[in-house]
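Worked example

This section walks through a single chain of length 262. The input is the sequence exactly as stored; nothing has been trimmed or padded.
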Amino acid sequence: MDTRFVPGLVLVGFVAALAFVTLLAIGLSRPGAGRAGLVAGGLPLFLLAPVVATAYASREFIGLFAGISESGLGAASMLLDACASLWLLQRAAWGAFAVSCLLGLVLGLWRMGRSQDDVACSLRRGLVLFLLPTLGLLVASSLTHQLGKALRVATAVISSDANDPVATSRVDAVLEAEGLQTKGAGSIAATSGLIARAATVGFVGGFTAVLVLLGLALPGLILAWRVRFEASFSALASALWLLAALGASLVSLGVLDPVRLP
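Given that input, the structure is written out below as C-alpha cells.
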C-alpha cells in the first residue's frame, strides 16, 4: 500500500475494532435466545468500517484526479499504484467486515443462557429487525460501487495507449459499460464528469452513511433488547450474516476488483 494512505488504514482498523468490541460486549450481556437479534444492530455497526474507507478513499482520489494535469513524466504509473492502494484500503475494510460477521454468527447461534422475562418476538418486529441490516448492506455496497466505478474508469483512461489496439479496445469497453462515448470532443468531458461525480458521491455519501448506519443500528439494538427469538428468526439471521460475509469476502479477496481491467 502507498504509505500516504496508511492513516486511512489505521482509521478503518480503529472503527472496525470499536464496532467489534461493542457488539461483543452487548452480545455477552444478552441471554442465548436474545442474541439472534444482534444482527439488526450489529451488522450496521460493522458496516461503518467499509463506509469510512469509502469516504476516505474517495477524498484522496479526488485529490489525485485533480492533480493529473499537473503531473509530469511517470505520473501514470504512480497514479495507477495510488488507485490500487485506495482499492486495497476498501478491500481491507470489507475483510474486517467479513470477519466481524463471523463473530455475529457465532453470537447468534450461541444459545447458552436463558431469561424467562423476555417476550417472544412478533412477526412485525422480526420483519423490522431483518429489514434494518438489509438497508445497511444496500447503503454500504452502493457507496463501494461508486468508488469502484470511479477507480475503474480512471484506471482505464490512465492506462490507455493510442498506439496499442488492445489497450484502446479495453478502454472503449470500460467506457461503453458506463454509457460513455469513446470518441468525439465531448467524450473527455463526460468521462471526467463521471469520475468526479462518482468520487464526490463516495466522499459525501460516506459521511452521510455513517449517520444512516448509526440510525439503523440504534433502533435495531433497542427493538431487539429483552426479546426472545425463535429458531426461524435465528435461521434467517444466520443466513444474513453468512451472505454478508460471503459478499464481503468476494471484495476482500480481490474477486470483485474494478482496478484489475480485462
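What to look for: The chain has a mean pLDDT of 86.
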